[in-house]
Amino acid sequence: MRWTRWSAAALAALGFVLAGPFAAARAEVAPLVVVTTPDLKSIAEAVSGGAVRVETLVQPGADAETFAPRPGHVGMIRDAALIVRVGLGFDEWLDKLIRQAGDTGQVRNEQILDLSTDIALLEVQGRSVEARSGHAHGAANPHYWLDPANAEAMSARIAEALVRIAPAGQDAIASAQKRFAVDLKQRLTRWTAKLEPFRGEAVVAYHNGWPYFARRFRLNIVDLIEPKEGIAPSPARLSGLASRMRASGVRAILHEPFEPVEASRYLAERTGARVVVLAPSVGAVREATDYLSLFDYNVDRLAEVLAQPR
């Protein structure tokens, strides 16, 4: 009996000793930030100072515009202290996840950060699809993260929101955001210089994902191959586009890894332009491992193609 009582006491004491570190670990779990795309994950991690955990719904290499959420994503939304989105209808599927998460727990408006609200937007329009834009999204073209200059404001807003959910990490977050902004500015100077010789260069894009990139680097997108999002071009459209490309001296066709390549190759064969595959997001190509390397890759690849003789 004494052995039994001693064993029970010893086991209880051992359980208390072992439980202490695990209980502390549970108490110290960093707040969860859920973002919609790998680009936002890269920026959020860069400015987090290790104060939060960041998870993305769309995985690297996947097309956010055709993303289909899974039931397991509802739990991520429910557990998130902060949800960061592109907005402008680009990640419209998030709204359904938020509604579903609301069935089991309240998701408050202040938990959702829409980064589009402080951006100088292009192609501002109503809900209808403009024939020129080929985009079926919301109030404007949503690909604003492809102007790297926008990332300074984006990172600052994310950092501000992170401080709200992880106030103990305020200094680390501020330092990380400052480092990111400095690195971004230095690289932007280099990227701009590399594409400066091609200022005003006429290009064609398959998908309307590049107006912010073109504005930043002074490129002229003369037309789109895709007449509307997800709609393949007709033979008549391709014939007319080939004529306009020759007349404008187009030397590069901007193509994304997710898009069908047949129309771009057809136009390249008939105009002498070269198809250049650019990464619209982190992970879309092997070299684009984070937000800054995304532009390292895109700028280098495009400059390489445009530098070739006509």
SSE layout:
Layout: H1 2-27, E1 32-35, H2 38-48, E2 53-56, H3 72-79, E3 82-85, H4 93-102, E4 112-114, H5 150-165, H6 170-195, E5 202-205, H7 211-217, E6 220-224, H8 235-248, E7 252-255, H9 262-271, E8 274-277, H10 291-306
Parallel strand pairs: 1-2, 1-3, 3-4, 5-6, 5-7, 7-8
GO biological process, one term: metal ion transport
GO molecular function, one term: metal ion binding
Signal peptide: 1-19
Can you offer a commentary on this structure?
- The chain is of the alpha/beta class and 310 residues long.
- It folds into two domains: 32-119 and 141-189, 3-Layer(aba) Sandwich (Rossmann fold); 192-307, Nitrogenase molybdenum iron protein domain (Rossmann fold).
- It contains ten helices and eight strands.
- It has helices at 2-27, 38-48, 72-79, 93-102, 150-165, 170-195, 211-217, 235-248, 262-271, 291-306, and strands at 32-35, 53-56, 82-85, 112-114, 202-205, 220-224, 252-255, 274-277.
- The protein has a four-stranded parallel beta sheet with strand order 2-1-3-4, sandwiched between helices. Strands 6-5-7-8 form a four-stranded parallel beta sheet, sandwiched between helices.
- α7 (211-217) links the parallel β5 (202-205) and β6.
- α2 crosses α6 (170-195).
- The longest helix is centred in the first third of the chain and has 26 residues, at 2-27.
- The termini are far apart.
Task: Give the SSE order as H and E letters.
Answer: HEHEHEHEHHEHEHEHEH
* Beta-strand fraction estimate: 5-15%
Overall pLDDT metric: 89
Strand order of the largest sheet: 2-1-3-4
What is the CATH third-level topology name of the largest domain? Rossmann fold
Q: Which residues sit in consecutive blocks of at least 5 with pLDDT less than 50?
A: 1-14, 16-27, 127-135
